[in-house]
Structures are given as structure tokens and as C-alpha cells.
Amino acid sequence: MSKNERFEAAKALYEGIGVDVCAALKQLKSIPISMHCWQGDDVTGFDQDGPLTGGIQTTGNYPGKARTPEELMADIDKVLSFVPGKHKLNLHASYAIFDQGEWVDRDAIEPKHFKKWVDFAKKRGMGLDFNPTCFSHEMVKDNLTLSSPDEEVRRFWIRHGQACIRISQYFAEELGQPCVMNIWIPDGYKDTPADRTAPRKRFADSLDEILSTPYDKEKVIVCLESKVFGIGMESYTVGSAEFCLNYAATRGITPLMDNGHYHPTEVVSDKLSSMLLFFDRVALHVTRGVRWDSDHVVLFDDETKEIAKEIIACGDPSRVKIGLDFFDASINRIAAWTIGMRNFQKALLYALLLPLDRMKALQHEGRNTELLMLQEEMKTYPLGAVWDFFCEENGAPVREEWFKAVEAYEKDVLSKRV
Ligand code: RNT
Ligand code: ZN
């Protein structure tokens, strides 16, 4: 059977249960995923030489990591060539690109330090998202940044946040689409603190000051990411779930949920509907937490599918700003990126090919047996044939075909980076 015959057969099966396959494919094409730049170089960035700090860790030393902006851009292009559809690129402030001999600290970065990224995005018709980098820096003192009792430290990071808002607005203006700017701080304590309130109060004050920078709310979507704990900061996290939720709700910004940032039995898929009842939008860091926030490559697993289902079931996927966040240094980084991107798209397609209206009706009518039956039967519908068709239609490699190109790239390019 040819690819097209397989697609037609799959389409007929889905249409048999009332799913409009062409509409699903059209919608999938319109959902951008913000691809994190930091899978390519183990979250190193270009603005300093120190180690990765902030309670996050990359593990592994697979050869070939990107060392320069040119290498990272080439790697990103490779990944994009394997991923169907138009997406966004998510940068951290530490990926500033300085001219020869130039350098400024993070509290003094300007749009011009990101011009090369804007040119890169423009050429590819992509949008850019942004993140202040409040880690891997000597002004992180005692694991504290925006919540620090040291005014010099706190003010440094406030200036950094304000600079990032200006850069985000520049991205939005240059590229003609909003920039999602996500704030995450590592701040916390290894042992039980005596005062849990003061650091959180200082964090709130710092955020208020950052947000007091004039900016266009249509252009810059400021988000705040919570976390349950970081390595070396196991007992107390300043930016906890409750802090971030309440802060975002009262200040009119967007909460960002990273599914590696909750206790292991908590699932973000179940949180989305509650969030979307009370916020205009929610942002996501899709990852795979394995026992801790370990940032393994996103799989096509049950929770990923369930998150995608909620994004589709809410009726307006554009209310959920989808970003990926993982950094695996133990395998080929191009492959890690590609697998994660393709998997989240597959999860979205899986959700788009569910007879959701019918399933919702079964639930409302209390026909629970039938609902369970249908949910389970949907798992073996021929998603693969539709996915292959989508890849082909959008000029991306079909099935494992892309891996040959990764192997060639590793041989010709990555293995020479020594
Ligand atoms: C850390 C957060 C944060 C970072 C990136 C690099 O726990 O998930 O989003 O992973 O900003
Ligand atoms: Zn994250």
C-alpha cells in the first residue's frame, strides 16, 4: 500500500467515528511550539564561562555540543528541517551575541545584543520568545537573586528583568508577533528557613519593579514559572506554585507551568482546565520529569497526550503558549530536540483526531462504560498514517528517515567539534 493509500484508509476510519481529518491537519499546522534553544549547548549560553547553577543540571557528555552562536544556529536549522510546521524559538538572555571585544553584564544587555537572533528568526519567518537568565552568574549569591536580602544583588536582577522586557518588546516589534517572556528564578534554601515570608515579599516587590517598566502588553506576554524544588534547594522554593499563581492572578500576568515542577503524582494535564477558567492564557514548559525535574526528552507518553488533549479540548489552543524545556546531554542533542518536538506535535495530532464532542457527550450523559471503551479503542486508531502524511505534506522527513541525516551531521559536523 502506498503512503497515500494508507492515509486514505486511515482517514476513512477516523471519519467513520466523526473526526474531520483535514480540519485536524489544518489546525495542527497552525499551532506553534516554542523550541528552547538551550538543548543545543547544555544551557551554557554565550555570555560567561562558569558552570550551570541554579539547582538545574544537565547530565551526560555526548560529544558535539554547540560552542558558538554559529554552531547553535546551524544545529537549530538542522532540527527545524526535521520538524513539520512553523514554530518559535525560545532564547535565554545568556545567549546574547557580543561583537568581538565587546561584553556587557546581564543588567545592561540591549536589543542590539540579540540582533543576530532577530535576523535568524526573520529569515525563517519565526517568532522569538525570551527568558531572563537568573542563574549561572556570580551575582547569584547564596542561591538567591530577586529575593535576595542583599540589595545590590536584588537590584542587579531587577535591572536584568527590566532589560529583558525591553528586548522582548524589540523581538515582538521586529518579528510582528508577540514575545512570551518567562521569568523563573532558582531562589531557595537547602534547609528549613526561619523566615519563609521575607524572601517571597522581596520577590514580589522585585517583580513589581520589573513590571513597572513601560511595555506593550499586546506585544510582551510576561509569564511566571513556579517550581517545587531545585537541587541543593530542597526545603524551600521562593517561587512556589502558590506564590506564582497568586502573583500572576493579582498582577494580570500569565502563569507558566513546567510539568517537571510538581510532586510526582501531580499532573499538569489536570491543572489546565482550572487555570483556563480563571486566566486568559497559560504558558507551558513541556518536559519529562523522571523522579525529579530531570528534564528528559519529551516522549509520546500518556501525560504528554493528556496535556495535548486539554489544549485542544479548551476550544482555543492559542490560549496555551506551548514551549518545550529539557536538556539531555547524554545523547545526540539534535536527535533529542527533534524527538521532543515531533513527539509533542504527534500528541497534538492524537488529540485533534479524537472524537472529543462525542466523548464529552458520553461523559455528560453518564455513559461511562462507553466512554472508557471509546477512549481505549482510540489508542489503536492509525495515527501513524496521518502523521506520516502531515510530515510529507509539510516537507519534513517521514518516520525514522530523519535519523540518517542526524548520523551524517554527527559524522560531518558534530564530531569535528573538539
Ligand atoms: C528550571 C526551569 C527553567 C529552566 C530554563 C533553562 O527548573 O524549568 O525553565 O529549565 O529556563
Ligand atoms: Zn521550565
Question: Share of helix among residues?
Answer: 40-55%
Rg over C-alpha atoms, rounded to the nearest angstrom: 22 Å
Biggest sheet, in brief?
5 strands, parallel
Order of helices and strands: HHEHEHEHEEHEEHEHEEEHEHHHHH
Spatial ordering of strands, largest sheet = 4-6-8-9-12
Ligand roster: L-rhamnitol, zinc ion
Low confidence ranges: none
- Tell me the overall shape: globular
Please give the number of β-strands: 12
Strand content: 5-15%
* Number of helical elements: 14
CA distance, first residue to last residue: 46 Å
By secondary-structure content and strand pairing, the structural class works out as alpha/beta
Q: Overall pLDDT, averaged?
A: 97
Description:
With 418 residues, this protein is an alpha/beta fold. Helix content is 44%, strand content 12%. The strands form four sheets. Strands 4-6-8-9-12 form a five-stranded parallel beta sheet. Helix 4 (115-123) links the parallel strand 2 and strand 3 (127-131). The longest helix is centred in the middle third of the chain and has 25 residues, at 151-175. The protein starts with a helix and ends in a 6-residue tail after the last helix. The structure holds L-rhamnitol and zinc ion.
Summarize the structure.
By secondary structure, this protein is an alpha/beta fold. It is built from 14 helices and twelve strands.
Please give the structural blueprint.
Blueprint: H1 3-16, H2 21-29, E1 34-36, H3 69-82, E2 88-92, H4 115-123, E3 127-131, H5 151-175, E4 179-183, E5 188-189, H6 197-211, E6 220-225, E7 236-237, H7 241-251, E8 254-258, H8 268-278, E9 282-286, E10 288-290, E11 292-296, H9 302-313, E12 320-324, H10 333-352, H11 356-364, H12 368-378, H13 383-393, H14 402-412
Parallel strand pairs: 1-2, 2-3, 4-6, 6-8, 8-9, 9-12
Antiparallel strand pairs: 5-7, 10-11
Helix pairs in contact: 1-13, 2-10, 3-10, 5-6, 8-9, 9-10
The site of zinc ion has 4 residues, from loops.
